[in-house]
Amino acid sequence: MNFEPVIGLEVHAHLKTDTKIFCSCSTKFGAPPNTHVCPVCLGMPGVLPVLNKKVVEYAMRMAFATNCEIAGESRFARKNYFYPDLPKGYQISQFELPIAEHGHVDISLPNSTKKRIGITRIHMEEDAGKSIHDPGRPVSFVDLNRTGVPLIEIVSEPDLASPEEAGAYLRQIRMILRYLSISDGNMEEGSFRCDANISVRPAGQTELGTRAELKNINSFKFVEKALAYEIKRQISVITGGGRVIQETRLWDTAKNRTNSMRGKEEAHDYRYFPDPDLVPLVIDDAWMDAVKKSLPELPDARRARFISDFDLSEYDADLLTADRKTADYFEACIATGAPTKLCANWIMGELAAALNARGKSIDQSPIPADALAKLLCLITDNVISGKIAKTVFEEMIETGKPAQTIVEEKGLVQVSDASAIEAVIDEVMTNNPDEVEKYRAGKKKLMGFFVGQVMRATKGKANPGVVNKILTNKLS
Amino acid sequence: MKITRDEVIHVAALARLCVAGDDIDRMADQVGDILSYVETLSRVDTTGVPPTAHAIDINNAFRDDTPGRHLDNAGALANAPEAEDGLFVVPRII
Known about the structure:
The complex is a heterodimer of chains A (476) and B (94). With 476 residues, chain A is an alpha+beta fold.
């Protein structure tokens, strides 16, 4: 029997505000424990949480970017449960009336078709604190700095049919969050977290199977691994005559497997009710319009524009728009008049490799976009060859000097003067009579050998176009 | 309204309350009485009335995204029964 998996994801993303969602404590990561706290986020009696307006704006940005309907009126609710990293005994979240519902994003599948994934809802909530477990004693330690850091939870429809689709969806969501500048989307640091609901059913069956919820997946690689493991596990339970039970399972990175955490019955009895401390949130048309107008160009639109306006291939456009800063760098480069394809190749090739080797992101590049553009213009103006340009580029990365200065200092200007090149070619031909004879006898691939010799003799400075032309003439 | 012993035990467990013996029956009776009394409200015809989320008629109380003052670490831990290295110490969770 063939089975098909049905997957829905819940993504939690930290919002990049300066302060927490309901109090004015800093959200900065890495402070000493329990120093970014106040009576509100510590859950002291008698305090009043007040909503951070920027959290609402950021959530609205995501809602627009994922084609959601924004609710004119939404509410906050208390989700009641006990855990030491949750000092109030409840988490303030949204339940019945979330800020946004009914959206979608399109993901690219490997066969380069698109698939539309539904977004059930987006809601705002506060994060909990962090607990550390003592390996030697029966105690845990709690740091409440993270308590109250704003999150949006983005819940997808169960539209994902494979671990690969889940991975593509997550990357798409993270790319949008980063384009909107509302979240770092860093899974390893916990600013982007994902829970997965997954079930399997016999292929063709419409009714859903019993699902398990996977938690504790903290890297993109693990999401796909954990889902693949869980699909196999559920199929073997069913084909072995058993029944999948609804439960929460944790991904164990060390053992590459999921383990049951607990039965869900009691855990899901959250007894939500509207939080009496927080008044309803009303968003009017004027506010919606203002936020909508402030949205940057989104990845899909930018990608389409790169293909239509700059004549880039889909592959190049994908790579260049995957990250907003790379796309910005590319556009700054071509704004100076450097040819688009050459810019694209150098940004994705030499520049990406050099930055990668130095552990830098593109906005920290030692070579600013206009400086790279000037280097590339030296190639198209025939001042230097593409090969020499790589030498100049290395020097630019190290010293930050302009390309023109390096070319002049090192005497790297390309030799295009026909008589100078001819002299070198004559010498090469005199020194290699056998090769000349073989070439004339029909071994045309020796052309590469001659070009190489000329380049060596000129230390790479000869204009390859001129070299090719004269060589072809002289050898024929 | 009839509340069963099992419901009392379940709700008590969710609230981390210890209820045992005769107390369970007493609680079941009393909670049932309270719920019956509150049920009086459902006799009001609310057709066409939107659900109320809040008792006062205001919306949109906001705060600007400007950092304010924190408690210092000693202040944060002042009420903690046990603390170590700036952290709250609690019975082991997992």
